[in-house]
Amino acid sequence: MKPAPFNLLRPRSVDEALGLLQSYRDEAKVLAGGQSLVPLMNFRLAQPHYLIDLNGVEGLDKIEIDDQTLSLGAMVRQRDVEGSPSIAERLPILREAIEQVAHPAIRNRGTVGGSMVHADPSAELPLIATALDANFHLRSAQANRSVAAKDFYQGYLLTDIAPDELLVGIDFRLPPAACGWCCSEITRRHGDFAIVAVAVVLGLGGDRRIAFVRVALGGVGPAPLRVEAAEAALLGEWPGAEPFRRAADIATQAVDPPSDIHASSSYRRHVARVLVRRALSVAESRVATRRDPGPFDSAQGRPFPRGETEHLRAASSREPNGSSGPGERISIAVAVNGVRRTATVEPRCSLVDFLRHDLGLVGTHVGCEHGVCGACTIMLDGRTVRSCLLFAAQADGAEIITIEGIGTNEALHPLQLAFRQHHALQCGFCTPGMILAALELLRDHADPTEEEIRVGLGGNLCMCTGYVNIVRAVRAAAQERKTV
Ligand SMILES: Cc1cc2nc3c(=O)[nH]c(=O)nc-3n(C[C@H](O)[C@H](O)[C@H](O)COP(=O)(O)OP(=O)(O)OC[C@H]3O[C@@H](n4cnc5c(N)ncnc54)[C@H](O)[C@@H]3O)c2cc1C
Ligand code: FES
Ligand code: FES
Fold first, then answer.
1. Residues 112, 125: Cα–Cα separation, whole Å
2. Could you tell me which residues are beta bridge partners of residue 172?
3. Are the beta carbons of 401 and 436 closer than 8 angstroms?
4. What ipTM was estimated for this complex?
5. Which of 29, 83, 337, 345 is the right S-S partner for 392, CB 3.0 to 4.6 Å?
6. pLDDT digits over 249-275, tens only?
């Protein structure tokens, strides 16, 4: 077990969570999706004594949209934003940004609020919040307050949130309907944190001059930055190469990017200039166009073939207000590959350790233990997750599918057959995670292109570098399904 021992506290309401935060303040950490916090805990860079798990708190996962505002609860999963047709229609830049956050299995679990509070200066969601001057709603046991994005972000991984406060929701004021938009970034690989990211929203008046514009940059300083000087230079101009170049120069002068192992300051500055110019052009080309919401809708999505995960859901043993101390074990009940399993686990026991050591399901592999390699990918309630970034106690009441559950030695799953036929495995270490990720990909894309397969599996690393045959196998499985 990697994290230091902790007490797991599982409130059911916001008030209860606030009471716990008030009691434990600096000794406590709030757990949302765990996609940033659990890697830190696995490295022991974070060692909270109390972990307040928000995943059972009711009412924090609402998506509400009216003529003027998109309101997101703090616990809305990133993948649900990505799959929302109304967000794709009304605030397409948010969807475009989220598609660039990590990989599907991480977005399935990661929350909007967690990303906002983690406050990585390269992160896409804080960038969009800054561009649109979103409002953050904070609550403590004593008071409620709202903070504008420009005041919320105060430095590197630093926000205005106090130790006893909870972020409960974020409001985005919608830009005028006919605006164009672009969120774009330079990364080493798709899904990595951005070296530099840009967000632009652009609207034209009746005379076709620029009447509304937002320009923000991420990865160029300790916090995302809205470049109001560049916006001022664009307002009232006709859109075109020259004003876009001028605005890009102004934006570049406004930033003082750091040098680090990923890029030098001068490289970041150069990339910022190029990205601002390009993003303005793309946004202009999208003025008054609408984006197709696309095939993915998380509410309707199912793994293929139909019925594959229709196993009996385990009865949850979870009691409201459940909490447990560092040495105490927690009773859980899960349905793993259709079989109900009960056990007691230590709070810090990861789901992958539980599957491998307690249940003997060693088909799920464990590599990096901080969410990067994808070897531990499984399905939890129909969505892929990194089982190294979940605690077993969090899976109580859930339905889990591991590689052992998708085929048998006598009757391999179509994806397993395709992997064998196309020599898509060498040492086989990455294969279980690849197949689970491919299962979800083929659920969401009936006939994926090579590019979609590469992006969909981008979070699963193959140390043997067998990517060409892996892509070929997934493509073949998709073709095979079409002909059945
Ligand atoms: C391999 C990998 C690649 C990634 N790539 C990207 C990327 O390209 N872009 C990107 O933006 N992110 C990336 N992430 C991070 C991911 O987006 C996380 O989901 C996100 O940063 C944190 O959200 P979470 O819900 O997982 O929060 P958690 O990890 O649970 O929490 C993060 C922090 O916020 C606090 N917190 C959470 N919710 C609240 C709340 N409601 N009120 C108060 N405090 C709260 C927690 O205490 C913790 O300090 C990546 C993660 C991994 C593992
Ligand atoms: S992502 Fe979980 S072990 Fe690497
Ligand atoms: S087949 Fe060896 S790691 Fe992918």
1. 7
2. 70
3. yes
4. 0.99
5. 345
6. 999 999 999 999 999 999 999 999 999
Q: Cα(270)–Cα(113) distance, rounded to whole angstroms?
A: 31
For residues 157 and 323, give the distance between their C-alpha atoms in angstroms, rounded to a whole number.
29
Query: Which among 366, 377, 422, 427 is the best mutation to test ligand 3's pocket, defined by most ligand atoms within 8 Å of the CB?
Result: 427
Read off the DSSP letter of residue 311.
P
Q: What is the pLDDT of residues 94-128, one digit of tens each?
A: 999 999 999 999 999 999 999 999 999 999 999 99
Q: Which two tokens stand for residue 443?
A: 């659920």
In order of their start, the domains of the chain are 63-285 (3.30.465.10), 323-405 (3.10.20.30), 414-483 (1.10.150.120)
Structure tokens at 13: 């309401």
Sign of torsion over alpha carbons 168, 202, 195, 243: negative
Q: Which ligand places an atom closest to the C-alpha of 419?
A: 3
For tokens 């967690």, what's the residue?
A: 114
* DSSP states along 322-381: -EE-SS--EEEEEEETTEEEEEEE-TT-BHHHIIIIIS--TTS--SSSSSSS-TTEEEET
| pLDDT at 299 exceeding the cut of 50 | no
